[in-house]
Amino acid sequence: MWKKISGLAIIGIIFCSLPYMVELYRMEVLIVLLFNLILAQSYRLVNTTGDWSLSHIVVMGVGAYSSALITKLLGWPFWLSLPVSGLVTAFIGFLIVFPLLRTIGFGFFIGSFALGEFVRLIWVKFRDPFGGPRGLINIPSAEIGPIDLYQPIPFYYFCLIIAAISIWIMYRIDRSHIGDTFKAIHTDPVLCETIGIRVPRYRAMAFVIGAFFAGIAGALMAHHQGAIDPHNFEATLMVYLIIYVVVGGIETFWGAALGVIVMTVIFEITRPLEEWRPLIAGCILILFLVVMPGGLDVLLPKTMKLFRKIPGIGQLFT
Amino acid sequence: MEVSTLIQTIANSLVQSSVYATLAIGLALGFGVMKMANFAHGEFYMLGAYVVFFLYTTWGLPYPLAVLAALPIIALVGMLTERLIFRPTKGNVLAGFMATAGLTFILQVLVGQAWGVGLMRAIETPYKGAWEVAGAFIGWQRLIIIPVAILMITALWYFLYHVKIGKALRACAQDPEVAALQGISINKITLTAMAIAGGYAGIAGALMAPIQPVTPYMGHDIIIICFIIVIVGGMESIAGAVLASFILGFIHTFMTTLYDSIVAIMAGVALMALILIVKPEGLLGKVKA
Amino acid sequence: MAMLEIRGLTKHFGGLAAINGIDLDIEEGEIRGVIGPNGAGKTTLFNVISGVYRPTSGVIRFNNEKISGLSPSVIATRGAVRTFQRDAVIHDFDVLRNVTVAGHLHSDQSIIKTLFGDIKGSREKDEEKAMKILEFVGLDHLCHELAANLAHGFQRVLGIAIALATEPRLLMLDEPVAGMNTTETAHMTEVINRLHEEKGMTIMLVEHDMKTVMSICKKVTVIDFGEKLAEGSPSEIMNDPKVIEAYLGAEEIVT
Hints:
A: mainly alpha; C: 255 residues; alpha/beta; globular
């Protein structure tokens, strides 16, 4: 118990002090890191039922477009539009997953891609209200009552709070009976069906909950960037999301977050090689899928065990 | 629609369908044999176009030779992909698919670094002039694609039904275990399948090089349509892939002419979603027990 | 009124009738064996009752409600739960978690409770219930073992524990002792007998192993070529000339 609390406290302190440890221009990276943490964890939640979706980045876009349109056209305040866009995204997520419940595995993967692409093409096609290929601009920046969240540091802390709440809720779901049911469905859907678990219902539930949090991440992103367009939610970015989850691994709850952090660090280190970035990402993806499937969260405990065996260094890790 | 426009659109549809078919049969072959879902198939197509750019425009080789050269070169790329990605991830469709998605990134960057990112490579048309039918003009460059595609499909059919390794390939597609029991090396078969898939994608790219702008990202749009085609046709069915190529080729070309290219892709995607819901095994796919 | 009532049940595959016009009644508290030679349609009958296949014609009523045509999960919710011949357990969960997951129908966890309630408390309650079931079937000493690491016999017993966690009214066992050694068979037989005697569970079992069927069941139904051939007590069945001719004649009755 105390080990857990102290671990969380250390992570909390690190995240709270990060803005003061980096140069101001790096704040952008930190904020994007928080979006990606929510996004990757929500993607992992969908994956626990065994359904790999290829539409999650578009689902995030639904949140971004909803919040942008709600604040721009309806003039609702940001604090209201944030949860509402989460709900809108969850609803659209339901519409996407419902026809896919007959498919499994690769069919689900490709089918989700097709329906996601369809949603994305709607944004490209209809200038009113989605702005067509150029997207939406002049999205109001985030503010809550008198607090202006336009500046990077306040916005960072706001996102940190939202990310912490979102991840905490997803953690509770993962630990609950519902989370167990998701994982059981992944392992043996036929058995689950015969003990009265309505498998399609739970698969849809995982997708919809995942969509809700992806929508929250998208809404935060929209107000941060001030402008969004359909290119922000292309398949290429979906591959990056897959990289986070594959690198981190889905065996344990924190795998996806680990993947996001590791990849963000790698991308920052290789910043001078900007145009080579996709190549690096591609190599890492292939490396993890081919050489070490299971990702870091399977690899790390093994490495830790090795470390513990070394006298002297071992004590540091126990 | 005027008669001349109609004829023009039909001709364009046939050309487009032929290109789709040469790409989609390769994709269906790989998936049928060992559940190899190759996301980098579009990049093979792109590489084929660059082979023509390199050999024909830069080196000055005759165009037909450059197109023929694309076959072994991209076949080799296909074999490397099988050896380095599909063989280690055997049995896991998603892992192979995702890893080849990583491969698309690598190939795009490598080609971009070698020949320039975003630079459109214009390749001079070797066969100028057009065939005039009822007021419609169909460029010879486009027209030759149709017989070449027919030739390629026939060749593949002959290979699958009359050549020993081709028959083994079909046996393997039906039941890998039975094929293995008969002493057929699965690795050799998957290697062959990926070589054919690669080579065919290479030729498709080579044929389209003088018609389309050649960029490192040209494979991206076409791979989406190719996956729609194999899903609609039935993932493992080559005949289904050919049939679906023509359905999608016509839908795509007509929708583009009547509306715009976005509506065309939307129609394709909607068709695929419909097939997945109503008949998940595809038009000519077999239901798995 | 019988608990499970089957009338004229038929299932065709293509043009072939796997089962053809079967009538079957199972009373509450009964323990019934269904036997037949290989390919007689036992497994198909099982799959149709549990909802895996939709019957071509005929009606299945459970507690006076029609269940034919419903999905397996709904049939299970109504209280008719089956087990599998294969090792149907959640391999990457430990034994206890396998049973708690299966207890979902009677767990008080909802999405609202998951978000705001006491997950730990209700998990402990679920685990307590699950432990009782594990004690009953004699797997409590293995409760923290990974299901994948269990011996085949224990996995099959766990399969029954999983089914019991749904609190079924009718338990349908698909060849419960298939592939087991003598010790495992004895353990399984004891579990089934105690379920029947101590808990009064209604049980229907399809079995190939004659010895087990004859020692457990009070009443046996024989099917052959998808049709009901005979029905009666084990001794009646063993002396029925039709049964001996069709099924038992070739081999020894008790093997």
